[in-house]
Amino acid sequence: MSDGGPPMTLSILEPAAVYLPPTPVRRVVVETPRGSHGLLPRRLDCVAAVPPGILTYETVDGEVVDVAVDLGVMVKAGPSVTVAVRHAIAGTDLSTLQATVARTFDDLDVQAQATRAVLTHLESGFVRRLLEWERA
Fold it and tell me: What is the reported pTM?
C-alpha cells in the first residue's frame, strides 16, 4: 500500500443499479468543480459534487481503471468512497472509453428526443381536452 493503511472500498451507484459494488481499492482520483482530488484511505472524510468527467481508481492488484461519469456526488466516509452518478461507463484505455461514451450519449439523446415527443403529445392532448371542457 502506498500509505501503509488498509484499502478503501469504492462503490459506484447509478439511479437504477449498482454499477460497481463495494470494491477494495488503493486510491481514487475524482474530478470536482474545484479540480482533481486524490483520495487515499487515511485522508479526511469529505463530500463533493462530481461533474461529468473521468474517475480513476487503482485496485489492490494494481490495475488502473478509468470510468466516465455523468453528474453526481461523491462521499468519502472513513475507508468507504461512494460515488452516485447518473451514468457510468468503464474502459480499459481512454480512447476506447471516449468512443464508448460518445455512442452511449448518442443513444441517450435519441431516447431523450423520443421522451420529449411523447410528453409533447400528452401535453397537447391535455390542452385540447381542457379547451373542450371549457367550451362545454
Answer: 0.69
For residue 66, give the nearest of 58, 78, 76 by alpha carbon.
Answer: 58
Helical (H) or strand (E) element with 113: helix 94-135
Name the superfamily (CATH) of residues 8-91: F0F1 ATP synthase delta/epsilon subunit, N-terminal (2.60.15.10)
Q: What is residue 46's three-state secondary structure?
A: strand
* Helix and strand totals (H; E) in the chain: 1, 9
In eight-state DSSP terms, residue 5 is S
Total residue length of the chain: 136
Q: Which residue has the higher pLDDT, 105 or 79?
A: 79
- Give the pLDDT score at 74: 95
